[in-house]
Amino acid sequence: MMVVFEVFLATGSDPARLLTEETKRETKAQVMTMDEARKVGFQGIPDTPGHEVRLIAVAKRDAPWIHRALEGNEVVASFRVHEVD
After folding, report:
1. What ranges in the chain are assigned the alpha helix state H?
2. Are 23 and 65 spatial neighbours (Cβ–Cβ below 8 Å)?
3. Is the confidence at residue 47, as pLDDT, over 80?
4. Tens of pLDDT, residues 18-37
């Protein structure tokens, strides 16, 4: 089971600051633009014109770690969580 976080970035923020290198390394999280996600097979998440969005795919066991990292991050305006089989 995988969890995908649909992250809406705050206006003018730097997407490189979304997750630390340590978090990405320890969780093996994949951070993708919508176009990158579609190229690797993610479908069904609609475009959101006017918003910069990143998808973060991670194993279910690591989802709480990513959730905490997003909640306290100033570059995140909001996010949604999707479970994927």
Report:
1. 21-27, 34-39, 63-71
2. yes
3. no
4. 999 999 999 999 999 998 99
Q: Hunting for tokens 């690797």 — which residue is that?
A: 40
Helix H or strand E encompassing 54 = strand 53-59
- Beta strands at 30-32 and 53-59: parallel, antiparallel or unpaired: antiparallel
Please, are residues 28 and 58 in contact by the beta-carbon 8 Å criterion?
yes
Place of tokens 């969005």: 53
Which domains occur in the chain, in start order?
2-84 (3.30.70.60)
Asked if residues 12 and 73 have their Cβ atoms less than 8 Å apart, the reply is no
Kindly report the pTM of this predicted structure: 0.91
